[in-house]
Protein 1
Amino acid sequence: MSLKSPEARLSVDHAEDTLSRVRPKALRVALVGNPNCGKTALFNALTGARQKVANYAGVTVERKEGLAHGPNGETLRVLDLPGTYSLRARSPDEVITRDVALGRLEGETPPDVMICVADATNLRLVLRLVLELKQIGRPMVLALNMYDIAERQGWSIDLARLSHELGMPVVTTVATRRRGMDKLLAAVESVAGAAHEVPAWCEPSAAQLRTAHGEAERIRKSCIRPPSHPDTLTGRLDSVLLHPVAGVAILLTILFLMFQAVFSWAQPPMDLIKGAFDHLSTLITQVMPDGVLRSLICDGIISGVGSVLVFVPQIMILFLFIILLEDSGYMARAAFLMDKIMGGAGLHGRAFIPLLSSFACAIPGIMGARVIDNKRDRLTTILVAPLMTCSARIPVYTLIISAFIPNRTVGGFASLQGLVMFGLYATGILSALAVGFVVRKIFWRGATEPFLMELPAYKRPDAKNVAMGVLTRGKIFVKRAGTVILAMMIVVWFLSSVPGPPPGALGPAINYSFAGMIGHGLEPLLRPIGFTWQIAVALIPGMAAREVAVAALGTVYAVSGGEGATGPLAGVLHAHWSLATALALLAWYVFAPQCAATLGVIKRETNSWLWPTVTFFYMLTLAYAAAFATFHIARAFGA
Amino acid sequence: MPAVVRFSPNARKLAPQAGAIVPLGRGARGLRGVVVQVGAPDASGLTEALAQGELERRLLEIGFVEGAEVEILHEGMIGRDPIGVRLDDMRVALRRREADAVLVRVQGAMAEAAE
């Protein structure tokens, strides 16, 4: 059997394969709608697990396509387009929606039918969008989603009249219960044959927008009667959740819980994954003869894959929270509450949650920056996220602090070691805010994005959709970050272990490798900031992950035991380094881009090598400057 | 149409009389009214950031249309910014400087109570 036969590929990637095997005649359907209209839930209901998430070529916008089965068993290709209020696109996501709808996007076959998804309880803005979409001239169907909620709240909608006024079939759906799916697909098929009109869309002027609003209002008033007793739940919840004092307190509590969860709930599965990979490594060590191949498999591939997969629990827990906050409607409130504080540093209100999660690890934080719509705001957030003190810095901080900072009480209550730790965290936060401010003021001056967003009605998140969302995030991380990060890990391994030590060599093996040579080569550069050649050598494998530097220092100083045994290593360091060197290394670690995985994720998320490069160099510059200043100031004080 | 009420930049709290026309961005919590103009020329000094027409169209797209009913429901903790506004039967959050481009004719109980 040839490897290229469909059967062979099926086992590689089921969803991808099924999609590519669909006959080209399959009807193409695109979903459009306002944000928060339940479009993703409808997409999930139509396609189930038969979806594929990728990026549109050249941009970071996610492309979600899936297969649906029509009432007669035929297959339809469903494309979920980013939510928008208007075809007059402002964000990269909205550009995609516009270009796909207009059939302008290269490499994307234009949809045969468009389904405009609407929240049946909130039709005010979507009717204008429907009128705008009609100008494109493609066959359309309007899906009134969340119809059960609309009925419960007492909305009365004249479906026949609405359909007549808009000139398209109107179908009621309840995506979370999979209700109305067959009717919707039948409606899609009924209009699919309709002749395309000539597209007449052009960017509307303010006057045209007003006219369209007027027309939408007329249709709304003639077809829709609001409930006599409007739902007050959202208003009552908001009076607490958006309260200037109580609201902020509740937000901080939620964030604290989230931070705790990412930190502590993730620990057992992370330990499990780490243990499994260590075990595998030990097993291979026992089975295979010593050599370069074994070293590549154990120290390169297994520890590389392991160090990627170990983040999966944190990422899934973080996204569980983010998706819950998004789907319930709270995320917009969090952005409202934090906007002023974040805005002072040139960041968007929504940047708060990704930055907070960067305390656990910059990787989920950078991925979480997806909640920010605007491209520039999102980039600023991605650039500063690695400055937040992630958990991988803790082993390094702990080692140096325990070796050099006397364990004594200051001012009668605070431990000096604890204060230094706090200071390192505070430095990270303040510098992130400062960098955000500088980026905004210097590079994107005057490009302030208006803060203008709908506060959607609160809704109970649907368990199935949340679970699907979390799983999708986990899969994307493993697939995307896995490739880049793994490649970087292998490079770091290669540098640290090749060439091997000559026979009869006395020093540690790393000393003779490329990493050792680079370390020795870098030493003159690092001498002004007080680093010894041993530190320089340890920094190279430390690129794999910050905490690896601890193990590497152990290797260089030929102390047995790595991360777990900081005791003896701390003593050795204390004997070899001056206090000024230790403080300079701490300052270095606050800023240094010592994490290949983070750079890999930035590459993936921005779809360009430019931004990881920018991040690497700006952080390196800050690290060098901070370590230089720390070293010389400390020396001036006699340390 | 009555003249637009002008304020000093520091005058944040506003208890205007019913019928007065004020920029939405200068209203206090409880202010109710009807939108009379969207994209008020240079009400906010926002021109440096966005072309005037662009802000106007964005406001229109999210539903700030002449004739829409608005009420300020929420104010942020710092500097009472941003604001949460009821806009007909929707809720919208925006910063005050953007809200300044929306002129509102004051009506309703709050304005009368403030007299």
Protein 2
Amino acid sequence: MRSAFIKALVELAERDPRIVLIVGDLGFGLVEPFAARFPSRFINAGVAEQNMTGIAAGMALSGAVVFTYSIANFPTLRCLEQIRNDVCYHNANVKIVSVGAGLAYGALGASHHSTEDIAVMRTLPNMTVVSPADPLQAEMATQAIAAASGPAYLRLGRSEEPVVHEGPVAFRVGKAIQVVNGDDATLIATGAMVHAAVQAARALMRSGGIHARVLSMHTIKPLDESAIVSAMQETAAIVTIEEHSITGGLGSAVAEVLAERSTRPVPFKRLALPSEFVSTVGSQSHLKDMYSLSVRGVVDATLGVLERAGLIGLVRSTDQACLLRGSE
Amino acid sequence: MNTTADMLIDVLQDLTAFARAIRTDVLHMVHRAKSSHIGSCFSIAEILAVLYGRILNVDPMRPYKHDRDRFILSKGHACAALYSALATRGFFPRDWLDEFYQDGSNLPGHAAHTVPGVEVSTGSLGHGLSIACGMALVGKRESEPFRVFTLLSDGECDEGSVWEAILFAGHHRLNNLVAIVDANKIQSLGRVNEVLNLEPLCEKWRACRWSVREIDGHNVRELETTLANVPFEPEAPTCVIAKTVKGRGVSFMQDELLWHYRSPNDQEFADALSELKAAV
């Protein structure tokens, strides 16, 4: 996703001289094409994220379109008050980009796990929060936030995320993309978990004839409430899937809509990370498996809500579960 | 505040009178609002008078004109003094000052960009200099004529973000940036040199490649001469350490920590007002 981002940014900067990239001394092997092409519009602020963000606000208030870049929690939590007061309060045209969503930096440890950022960023007034699913969405998200005025947060995976969209896709901030059609249950996923959700939907179809709808909820704020309401009305149950803490992220955002808008009980499950620091050393895939953020985990969660919805019975018997898991 | 246009013109021509008018406004505002930070406002009265009376290229009729000098009050808690200066310069009606800090008013208790003439909102210390760096960087890269001035408190220099910005400005030779430190030597819970000793402060800024001068922050002539001659060096940002006295102008408030917080009661208000009047 990060390569798609920088490619898109270079292309945008060719057309728009207002675009500036400011990094917090990170981006080795990534930002060089931008720096080489636009030396006067590339700034390394040093290991100083608070100043980086304040500078970005000052530049934006003077007419620039500023992208700040770093990894994990450094461009978000480290400088949260600068984002709140300097960027959001002034509705400054600053786009915050972080690479390493969720557990992408798995074995680097909890300092590098970006697991509360969606929750924190979506509380900020004026902030748009975008979490693309794959390289194509990352590219289109970069274009979309550059085109819109005001603060945005772009949450990117690291690299080599699987492709969700093989062909062109309509990407609009605040508008979910229905990746798989279905009317039994709805899987609402964000970031790289969309790919797992699609795989899970296929497994459910193959093994149980279950038609699961998959929504790529690439924008957490503003949230596509109508897609959620449609899911609530047209399908029996909803599962949210995110590589983020269970507190305050996509699942919470969807739950808020369901709680206010539903006219009947909707079996609902948030598949997310527990609110705890990872105490094991592990790669991203190891840790995600550990926390059921896997195709198998999505399948199990979906069967669970469908069972609660009364749509299926006994599907969680060992044989059935094995069958479904075997298709992973 | 009841002030005639003629009086305002006099005030703008006489910087000492302008500073006194700022203190008088602030005294009324803080007393009426029962708000804090009068000492922090009094220590910057001359600095603001010189900036808004002589130095800043700003136009109340066109507050957002492209080539305006930018001024950021990084010590946003002293906004009552800034509001007074802006009202005197005509950025908004002076009767707004009467409603400072009141329910539904236009003037909140920390500087807000929603007020005409206030460049950016502040209130949390350690933000202003970074924003100023961003503005100065754009100005320099696009060869814009404007300068960026920011006023910090000395206690504010405890904030790590201030030093991030100091390093940045020195490295990038932001010669269109001026940082003024209101060195009144008192911060929230005590004397600056007892809470977290900043000395030698001038040398610290110099070590970060700033051109630094230390002056008397209550001497309008010295302030004017100094600020009219920035940058001191062609390729360096400018730092003015303005030695000031917290609560300056009212004998019982001067150099007293209490007046970071306390709002004058009716008797103290009357006493302070008569001292300010007697100083004419």
